[in-house]
């Protein structure tokens, strides 16, 4: 079991409450010198002391968990590319995560100002990371993809209206009709001018395309219920973020409504129990709840209710070109923000075997190991010759949780040669000798010589 060092967070928590070291040591039943060593990371937190601390301050044990360190390190590598070493960045992210977050925030503000200046002078090439979609992604990432107020409200409503397996569509239809006098109208997509759904307040009708599968129709209905019954809660959450852009606010509202819909159709307690009983077998869960692979995977990445946590997953959706259209995480997987991800990741391998589940033990440069499950999903619109959409869906967790998953059966998760070395993305990856590197790392000089060639595509100076 990894040792927990959380001295800076404990010291800050103690100072915020105005408690002296001597007084806190007395409450915890330890010596002041022992507490001083803990606060300076000379000694780790033991389980017994950690429990007493959480009881004393009324916080969850997750407060002291270093779950976001890998992502902080990856973001710091972009903000401070050539000024600090990897061990120094790791120490900053581990011991002073708030300072690390402040540095990253300043860097993003600088990037945003640079972006705005580019627009003023006529350069329309936007810098990645500041579009409305990216801001919404960051919003869910900061909250570890768990929104307690909406999740609990959805679960309570599911129990109240009798959402049951095989009868979800009926329960949601009746709720819309009886509570809001809204009727469902199913139409061809052509009749909806290419739209998949549209709510018309004037006629109180919710139009759903016939191309939507039952699970997709249920999501649209659940989202409409969220916008009608949880508008105040959603508005409060958005207000806390202080978004300045109208489009970002709209996208966040849509994201929160869809989150509520998934929590309504797949109520937390019932879904977590089914996940644990099936050892997180996604295929069995899709059959049991009559929902698609992507919906089940996304819901699995939200199970972070205190005292009833599921496996902390990271969720990602990519296309063949490597574009990442969704990324959410209840753990600290270091997604790249500088464009591009690792070509050795099994999420891309999934495209070579459509519909088949691929499993990979991935070894990150900083030493963390993850178990990744990936599979393609296909969406069709219209008939023959009409273009469809193909994505690869990835779901990953740290290997310390992998024993709870059916996908770990028969795998040696700790074998030295049993993992694939991958990275967050070529521009921030520390694997300097990787032959698959597609870009030079940020802040490093190339060792170029017209009289020689190398197998490594971007040889670097020492």
UniProtKB/TrEMBL annotation:
- Domain of life where this protein originates: Bacteria
- Record keywords: DNA-binding, Transcription, Transcription regulation
Matching entries from Gene3D superfamilies are given as: lambda repressor-like DNA-binding domains
Cross-referenced SMART domains: HTH_XRE
What Gene Ontology molecular function terms does this protein carry?
DNA binding
InterPro entries the UniProt entry points to: Cro/C1-type_HTH, HTH_RamB, IrrE_HExxH, Lambda_DNA-bd_dom_sf, ScfR_C, TransReg_Diox_bact_type
Q: Which Pfam families match?
A: HTH_3, Peptidase_M78, ScfRs
Ranges for domain HTH cro/C1-type come to 10-64
Give the matching PANTHER family.
Answer: HTH-TYPE TRANSCRIPTIONAL REGULATOR, HTH-TYPE TRANSCRIPTIONAL REGULATOR SUTR
- Tell me which family the UniProt entry assigns to this protein: Belongs to the short-chain fatty acyl-CoA assimilation regulator (ScfR) family.
Which protein is depicted? Answer: DNA-binding protein
């Amino acid at each position: 079991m990894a040792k927990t060092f959380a001295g800076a967070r404990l010291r800050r928590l103690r100072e915020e409450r105005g408690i002296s070291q001597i007084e806190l040591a007395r409450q915890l039943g330890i010596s002041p010198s022992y507490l001083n060593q803990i606060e300076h990371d000379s000694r780790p937190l033991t389980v017994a002391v950690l429990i007493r601390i959480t009881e004393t301050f009324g916080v969850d044990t997750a407060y002291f968990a270093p779950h976001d360190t890998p992502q902080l390190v990856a973001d710091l590598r972009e903000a401070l590319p050539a000024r600090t070493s990897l061990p120094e960045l790791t120490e900053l992210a581990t011991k002073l995560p708030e300072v690390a977050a402040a540095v990253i925030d300043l860097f993003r503000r600088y990037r945003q100002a640079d972006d705005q200046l580019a627009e003023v002078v006529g350069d329309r090439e936007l810098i990645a990371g500041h579009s409305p979609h990216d801001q919404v992604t960051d919003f869910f990432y900061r909250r570890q993809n768990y929104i307690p107020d909406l999740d609990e409200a959805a679960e309570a409503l599911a129990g109240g209206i009798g959402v049951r397996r095989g009868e979800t569509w009926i329960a949601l239809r009746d709720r819309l009709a009886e509570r809001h006098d809204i009727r469902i109208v199913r139409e061809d997509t052509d009749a909806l001018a290419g739209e998949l759904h549209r709510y018309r307040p004037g006629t109180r009708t919710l139009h759903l395309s016939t191309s939507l599968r039952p699970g997709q129709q249920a999501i649209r209905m659940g989202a409409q219920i969220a916008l009608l019954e949880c508008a105040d809660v959603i508005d409060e959450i958005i207000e806390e973020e202080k978004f300045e852009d109208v489009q970002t606010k709209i996208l966040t509202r849509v994201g929160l409504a869809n989150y509520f819909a998934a929590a309504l159709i797949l109520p937390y307690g019932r879904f977590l129990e089914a996940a644990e009983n099936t050892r997180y077998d996604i295929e069995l869960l899709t059959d049991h709840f009559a929902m698609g692979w992507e919906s089940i995977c996304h819901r699995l990445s939200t199970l972070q209710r205190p005292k009833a946590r599921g496996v902390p997953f990271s969720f990602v959706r990519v296309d063949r070109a490597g574009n990442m259209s969704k990324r959410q995480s209840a753990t600290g997987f270091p997604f790249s923000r500088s464009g591009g991800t690792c070509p050795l990741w099994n999420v891309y391998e999934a495209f070579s075997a459509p519909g088949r589940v691929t499993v990979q033990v991935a070894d990150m440069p900083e030493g963390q190991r993850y178990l990744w499950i990936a599979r393609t999903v296909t969406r069709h619109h219209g008939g023959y010759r009409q273009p469809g959409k193909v994505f690869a869906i990835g779901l990953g967790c740290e290997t310390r949780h992998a024993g709870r998953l059916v996908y770990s059966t028969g795998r040696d998760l700790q074998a030295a040669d049993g993992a694939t070395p991958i990275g967050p993305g070529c521009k921030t990856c520390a694997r300097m000798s990787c032959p698959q590197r597609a870009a030079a790392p940020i802040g490093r000089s190339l060792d170029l010589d017209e009289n020689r060639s190398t197998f490594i595509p971007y040889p670097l100076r020492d």
